[in-house]
Design brief:
Shape: globular
Bound molecules: ligand H2B
CATH topology: Gyrase A, domain 2
Number of domains: 1
Order of helices and strands: HHEEHEEH
CATH architecture: 2-Layer Sandwich
Largest sheet: 4 strands, antiparallel
């Protein structure tokens, strides 16, 4: 599934689509195991670690370019040695397949051997 998730592109976020249920989100999460599902099933998040601030910032820059190309944007907090990324489809105030596509693509940008 991750292979297919990562090879997919985000669909335009239309309103009126119901957010994923806990069961649906859990099924997707099995394919992005490094991400956590919030208790309220509203978002997924992951903490990435790096050797320093510059490496964290460079990763954030890559993620921002990916978000622009996919038209689907995460919330990001970062600092020396870390980047905390969360994903939610704002338009439906919950999770959509797009969020898991982005998670799979973001995971590909992060290569542990290069980072902390
Ligand atoms: C018009 C534009 O495509 C939409 O506003 C997109 C932009 N990026 C988005 N990103 C996220 N995470 N959720 C959205 O609902 C969303 N909507």
């Amino acid at each position: 599934m991750t292979g297919t998730l990562e090879s997919k592109s985000c669909t335009p976020c239309r309103g009126g689509v119901p957010p994923l249920t806990r069961e649906e989100a859990a099924a997707y999460l099995a394919n992005t195991p490094d991400w956590r599902l919030s208790e309220d099933v509203k978002l997924i998040d992951r903490r990435f670690t790096f050797a320093n601030f510059q490496d964290a910032f460079a990763f954030v820059r890559q993620v921002s370019e990916l978000a622009e190309s996919e038209g689907h944007h995460p919330d990001i907090a970062f600092g020396w040695g870390y980047a905390q990324i969360s994903l939610q489809t704002k338009k439906i105030k919950g999770l959509h397949e797009n969020d898991f596509i982005m998670a799979a693509k973001i995971d590909r940008l992060f290569s542990p051997e290069k980072n902390g």
